[in-house]
From TrEMBL:
Leader sequence segment: 1-15
Keywords linked to the UniProt accession: Hydrolase, Signal
Species annotation: Streptomyces machairae
Top-rank taxon, per record: Bacteria
Region of interest (Disordered), residue spans: 21-71
Pfam families referenced in this protein's UniProt entry, alphabetically: Sortase
Taxonomic classification: Bacteria, Bacillati, Actinomycetota, Actinomycetes, Kitasatosporales
Biased amino acid composition, Low complexity: 50-63
Name of this protein: Class F sortase
Biased composition (Basic and acidic residues): 38-47
InterPro entries (UniProt xref): Sortase (IPR005754), Sortase_dom-sf (IPR023365), Sortase_F (IPR042001)
Length: 214
């Protein structure tokens, strides 16, 4: 990740992360403190939620290339991926509320397959349009496949290591944004009890690179 991107990524982690669900933005605290230390061996288990057994030392790390499509077979997700940046108030942008709902990659995070946590956001609901692209994200289980197709034509395949539902007030910024020494993926949406257009919680999927392919 380039230095400018790293700075912007840290800025976002220290700002309020905005994950709008149902057409209304729900603000949560995402203040980043000390970075979480992770084991240096990609195949070693023992982190919270467990490391995926599908992780492989043979998975090569590709160069930088933004994601253009995301597939999650276990929950029938096959969506284009748009780019997201920072809003004027310093919060992370979210995908627009449209009938043709799409996931969005935060462009100041690493691209999928690069070392570090690549962050992709999606809605669970999209107002009057109904279900969002990440409506079933909480159903994922350890080992489920996630495939990010990149602009350069390559694919980075990940395996789910853990799925967490957390109160927005207790958003685990260190776990989501913290430095890691291997390629990982974070998928984020809303979840939990709903009041009007707002949800109390966030659903966060943690995944690790298992393979890359042309």
């Amino acid at each position: 990740m380039m230095p400018l991107s790293r700075r912007a990524f840290a800025t976002a982690a220290m700002a309020s992360l905005l994950v709008g669900c149902g057409g209304q933005g729900t603000e949560q605290s995402a203040t980043a403190g000390s970075r979480r230390k992770r084991d240096t061996e990609a195949s070693k288990e023992g982190q919270e939620g467990g490391s995926s057994s599908a992780s492989s030392n043979s998975a090569r790390t590709p160069g930088s290339s933004p994601p253009v499509r995301l597939r999650i077979p276990a929950i029938d997700v096959d969506t284009p991926v748009i780019r997201l940046g920072l809003a004027q108030d310093g919060t992370v942008e979210v995908p627009p509320i449209t009938a043709d709902d799409r996931a969005g990659w935060y462009r100041h995070s690493p691209t999928p397959g690069q070392v570090g946590p690549s962050v992709i956001l999606g809605h669970v609901t999209v107002g009057s349009y109904g279900d969002g692209v990440f409506r079933d994200l909480a159903r994922l289980r350890r080992g489920d496949r996630i495939v990010a197709r990149r602009k350069d034509g390559t694919s980075a395949e990940f395996a789910v290591s853990s799925v967490r539902t957390v109160a927005k007030a207790d958003f685990p910024a260190d776990d989501v944004y913290g430095d890691v020494d291997r390629p990982e993926l974070r998928l984020i949406t809303c979840g939990g009890p709903r009041s009007g257009d707002e949800y109390r919680d966030n659903v966060i999927v943690f995944a690790e690179l298992s393979s890359t392919a042309p």
